Amino acid sequence: MTLTAERHKLEVKRIPLIPNYPPFRQWKKSALDAKLTDNPLCLYLHIPFCTQRCAFCYYKTVDLKERPEVEGYVDALCQEIKMAAERFQLSNRPIHAVYIGGGTPSLLKEHQFVKIVEALDENFKFFRDKKQLSVEAEPLTISRSKMETLVKLGVNRLSMGMQSFNDEIIKLSGRGHDKKQAYRAIDIAQQVGNGKWNINIDLLSGLGGETDETWAESLEAAIDTGVESITVYKMEAFANTQVFKEGVREETLPLPSDEQELKFMQYAIERFARSEYIPWSFFTYTKNGVDKSEYIYNIWQGMEFYGLGVSAFGSLGDSVLQNTSDLEKYSEIIAAGELPLARGYNFTSLDKMVRDVLLGMKLLRFDLQKFKNQYGFRLESLCAAPLKDLKSEGFVVVSDEAIELTSKGILYGDFVGKTLSDYLKNMYE
Ligand SMILES: C[S@@+](CC[C@H](N)C(=O)[O-])C[C@H]1O[C@@H](n2cnc3c(N)ncnc32)[C@H](O)[C@@H]1O
Ligand code: SF4
Predict the structure, then answer these.
(1) Whether the CB of 52 sits within 6 Å of ligand 2
(2) Minimum-distance ligand to the CA of 46?
(3) Residue nearest to atom 6 of ligand 2 (CA)
(4) Which residue out of 57, 104, 170, 296 has the highest number of ligand 1 atoms within 8 Å of its CB and is therefore the one to mutate?
(5) Is residue 264's pLDDT more than 50?
(6) Which run of H or of E encompasses 102?
(7) How far is the CA of 201 from the centre of ligand 2 (A)?
(8) What CATH number is associated with residue 417?
(9) Nearest ligand 1 atom to alpha carbon 243
């Protein structure tokens, strides 16, 4: 990479004018194709309301008991859809995937879902051609009629938060449902969506009170449901949660140690390997590898996305941008006819490389050729030193084409991505 003084000898000579770089002879007609087609886009819509405040949850959500103005929020969201599509000229872009997340989107009333989908349809010309429309859901907010409406509206992926299938652990986590209600919700979703959507359920590893037995029970129950996808997040005890207060500060809630939690994850990886669930990211396992979140998969590969709703963020061109996180302000700004954007960040070329490595590694296989084509560097040469260590410690397998996580690499989550991206950052800073 660096030229040493010995290798470089300055040859002084007067040369003809250099008109451009690279020289015109390297320019090709095919390079125009990407410029002439509109790049695909994903959309994220945020619904910040919940029917409960779970002890572990770090999301900024508003409890319905505080009587928030949900209808007004939905109207503001529809207004923002129109304004953002116009302001950033998004209307003609192919829409790849749409993700309605939260909070708890499934608490919306049926007519509110209809309003949102109509606004998307009116303002994005290719909304109907999208590959996937996902909605996040919570067991107690699921009814047959609501699920039927979602199916009619074209929702083809339902992601349900379960966290655990052990009544004692669910109770300790501050959620309002029990195992029976969880099964009931899954049953309804499976019956109504039969063949029309894929279902994902979320589990949390490391919840308060969890033991080897309760964890195994939850995993068995999740697998037994036969849902297409199971996501296992590591429960992080963030400072703004009840779990942090009781489990870390006051020590009244027994939290599994890091070693125990690692054992839970290890068990999950082995258990999934014995069933037909195959990982596509280090925390999501899909039955026969058929379902994946098109939204998450594509934004981690660098597809542009626009975030709609309070605190939502997106990525357009070389920038990321985020809406205000203040619910009142959000609606006021929109009522004043402005976009509720509050902050952003413009990527340097180094940021882009670092982001691509960090997010791309989450998908278990990093395409080295694609990186070389995009940046002109070979990642395996730039990161030769950490890759050697990661290989010898059994975290990755490296070939000419790709860096792939081993099951140890999967177990340690973002560790490989973070190691490589930190190395890249430090190299140039
Ligand atoms: C928006 S919620 C899912 C939908 C719905 N609100 C529910 O809880 O059923 C998304 C997921 O974030 C995960 N999550 C929440 N708090 C977490 C934490 N402290 N650490 C890791 N994951 C967390 C949970 O697994 C949850 O299902
Ligand atoms: S886990 Fe889901 S339901 Fe519970 S507070 Fe967080 S977003 Fe709301």
Answers:
(1) yes
(2) 1
(3) 57
(4) 57
(5) yes
(6) strand 95-102
(7) 14
(8) 1.10.10.920
(9) 19
Average pLDDT for the chain: 95
Specify the ligand 2 atom closest to the Cα of 59.
6
Ligand 1, CB within 6 Å, residue ranges:
50, 56-59, 101-104, 136, 138, 161, 163, 202, 204, 233, 235-236, 238
- Assess contact for 288 and 278: CB atoms under 8 A: yes
Q: Is 317 part of any domain?
A: no
Domain of residue 367, residue span = 349-429
Same domain, 126 and 204: yes
pLDDT over 70 (residue 4): no
Quote the CA–CA distance of 224 and 179 in Å, as a whole number.
13
- Closest C-alpha to 296, from 229, 205, 344: 229
Q: Is residue 17 part of a domain?
A: no
Tally of structural domains, the chain: 2
Query: Is the shortest distance between the CB of 159 and ligand 2 below 6 Å?
Result: no
Regarding whether 276 and 414 lie in a shared domain, the answer is no
The answer to whether residues 357 and 421 touch, using CB atoms and an 8 Å cutoff, is yes
Ligand 2 centroid to Cα of residue 61, in Å, is 7
The answer to whether residues 288 and 413 belong to one domain is no
pLDDT at 290 over 80: no
Identify the CA nearest to 53 among candidates 104, 110, 108, 106. Answer: 104
200 plus 71 within the same structural domain: yes
Domain end, chosen from 274, 299, 324, is at: 299
Tokens for 72, please give them: 């007004």
Q: Are 233 and 202 in contact (CB under 8 A)?
A: yes
CATH code for the domain of 120: 3.20.20.70
Cα 253 to averaged position of ligand 2 atoms, centre (Å): 19
Determine the distance separating the centroid of ligand 1 and the alpha carbon of 231, expressed in angstroms: 10
Q: Are 120 and 64 in contact (CB under 8 A)?
A: no
Q: Is 270 helix (H, G, I), strand (E, B) or coil?
A: helix
Question: Rounded to the nearest 5 degrees, what angle is found at the Cα of 93, between the Cα atoms of 92 and 94?
Answer: 120
* pLDDT confidence bin for 6, thresholds 50/70/90: low
Q: Using a 6 Å cutoff on CB, does residue 102 contact ligand 2?
A: yes
Tens of pLDDT along 418-428? 999 999 999 87
For the segment 308-312, the average pLDDT, to the nearest whole number, is 98
Question: Is residue 412 assigned to a domain?
Answer: yes
Give the pLDDT of residue 3. 42
Indicate whether residue 50 lines ligand 2 (CB < 6 A): yes
The answer, as to whether pTM is greater than 0.90, is yes
